[in-house]
Design goal:
Length: 411
């Protein structure tokens, strides 16, 4: 009350002095003695203004409210540690379609991108050259067959005459030799005919496997040779996924292999971040570690009904590699990282903040395993850490959007 009264009195005095100066301003021009009085009054006004400023500084403003933060408790639970690797899909069989014989391509008999059964026609080559070779072989065979028949007649004729000494033994031996030569030549020409028939059949290019046919790499009218790649067919059910793991992970998996009763199941996360509904397993491990990267190739196999997945796609392979028993976990949002140092804000029972440095372990979902630096039940700041520092008093609200809080509510 005293401070407020003094300030009001000074304000009233200031107003009176101002009025007096105004009324005497005209007289000062006439009488110089009044100038001294004006200067004294002006000094009084300055002193009053300084006093007024002091009065205004003494008025106290209300304290700001404490900053609001959301907190969640440090919880303890068993955590499954997962690892992920990036892999590439390949067909379990990728067959390049090449022609066996030469010939001009006349027609394409399949639908690109469709599923083709084993033995189904895909391309038709010009067959005239193969047909001509077959006819030529058949003509030679008929000529040789006639020679063989003549040799057999000579043998039958000369055999009794030799016994009667009407024909020399040399004539019979010559007839026998002609018979054997004609028989051998006929067998060789029959083989040529069989080969010509095969070449004629190969002018129709068929699928050696069942699978998805790719886009044709050749066009109508192109001259095909055995080196020409016409297209590729992939058998994609099941489909393989190749990925590389670190040498240390490989050794750890091999040491733990004897303790497992069944193959480790694998999940596949597709390019659109969806989880493939079918689970797979590791099929084989490559024979060597890449000395440049220190990794070893692993091939996994996944069922692929309806051939949805195709070779060349990228996917992430995920599996549980370890289980941490009774681990302390906090939300990943609660962690602040600066130059490799991880910190969290802890709110004590007195609502004061303490910034702590923590050592973190693996991640699991939206939670982070804490190796050291926190105790079970401590409240950590999830939202608002950037607005506080050690010693600041805060207003807290519970944070519910975490796996930890969901587990707490379900207990």
């Amino acid at each position: 009350m005293t401070t407020e009264f003094s300030c009001r009195a000074l304000l009233q005095a200031k107003n009176e002095v101002t009025s007096t100066l105004t009324s005497r301003s005209s007289r000062e021009r006439v009488d110089p003695m009044h100038g001294n009085v004006a200067m004294k009054l002006f000094g009084t006004i300055l002193l009053g203004l300084v006093t007024l400023v002091g009065c205004s500084k003494k008025e106290e403003k209300p304290a700001p409210p404490p900053p609001g933060v959301t907190v969640t408790p440090v919880v303890q639970k068993d955590v499954e540690v997962q690892q992920e690797w990036v892999g590439t899909m390949v067909g379990n069989i990728d067959a390049e379609i090449r022609p066996k014989v030469e010939g001009f391509l006349l027609s394409k008999l399949y639908t690109e991108g469709s599923y083709i059964n084993k033995g189904e026609p895909m391309y038709q080559l010009d067959k005239r050259q193969a047909e001509a070779a077959l006819q030529q072989g058949q003509g030679k065979l008929e000529r040789t067959r006639a020679s063989l028949e003549q040799a057999e007649i000579d043998v039958k004729r000369y055999t009794p005459l030799v016994a009667q000494r009407a024909v020399s033994q040399a004539e019979l031996d010559k007839a026998l030799s002609m018979q054997r030569a004609a028989t051998a030549e006929m067998n060789a020409e029959q083989a040529e005919i069989d080969n010509a028939k095969l070449n004629l059949g190969w002018t129709t290019v068929t699928s050696p496997i069942s699978g998805v046919a790719g886009i044709s790499k050749v066009g109508i009218g192109d001259l095909m040779t055995p080196n020409s790649v016409m297209t590729t067919i992939s058998n994609v059910d099941p489909i393989y996924v190749d990925f590389n793991i670190a040498e240390q992970d490989y050794m750890r998996f091999m040491r733990a292999k004897s303790a497992r009763t069944s193959a480790r199941s694998l999940q596949m996360i597709l390019g659109d971040s969806t989880v493939f509904p079918q689970t797979g397993h590791a099929l084989l491990v490559n024979r060597e570690v890449d000395p440049n990267t220190g990794t070893i190739q692993v091939r996994a196999v996944f069922p692929n009904p309806k051939s949805i997945l195709r070779p060349g796609q990228y996917a992430r392979i995920r599996t549980v590699t370890d289980t941490r028993k009774a681990a302390l976990v906090i939300p990943q949002q609660a962690v602040s990282e600066l130059q490799g140092i991880y910190q969290v804000g802890v709110v004590g029972p007195d609502k004061k903040v303490t910034i702590k440095t923590v050592t973190l372990g693996p991640q699991s979902g939206d939670m982070w395993v804490v190796e050291s630096g926190l105790q079970l039940g401590e409240s950590v700041i999830v939202d608002g850490l950037q607005r506080v520092k050690t010693g600041v008093t805060v207003a807290t609200t519970a944070f519910k959007d975490t796996e930890a809080s969901a587990n707490e509510s379900g207990k």
